[in-house]
Amino acid sequence: MEISAAEARHALHEVEQATLRSNRSKRYRGSAPYLILWGAIWFVGYSSMFFWPALSANLIWLVLDGLGLAGSVLIGVKTFRTRDDVKKVNGRVLAVFAIITLFMLVTIKVMQPMDAAQYAIFPALVLSLAYGLIGVFFLRGFVWLAVAVSLGSLVPYVFLQPWLSLCIAVFGGGSLLIGGVWMRKL
User: What is the largest CA-CA distance in the chain?
Assistant: First the structure.
């Protein structure tokens, strides 16, 4: 039985599409542990801003960010341990994290004075931007994550400001957790 040129092209196209779907699924699953980790950190950090505002702005977030960075590095080492490009990938991830963190810190310093609500919402919005860009260029599911985190931050900022930190904990941290669990199952 001979295969026509059209049938061969169609078969190759199907293989290519299956490969693309498989690679996309691997990238989603690879993102899941980071989202779950940072979702938990957001939940604890923003909840602490609501319940213990004086303590959380410095000490609790400093500890949580340190744990998140260490956890992210460990996830990266575990994920890419068998690949030759572990240093390059982890270096890029750390560089992006450092650039975003530096941008947020410098912007907070330059834009002072900021009230507590602005201080609470700014990191959520910057990270929503980062998730949105990941979604536009790499994994479309991150666009929905960006929308959920943005709306979960902006709506309470406008309408429920006394509850802002708790809303970001629930909607922002919850969106990251739910997104991570969903991506892990892909």
Answer: 77
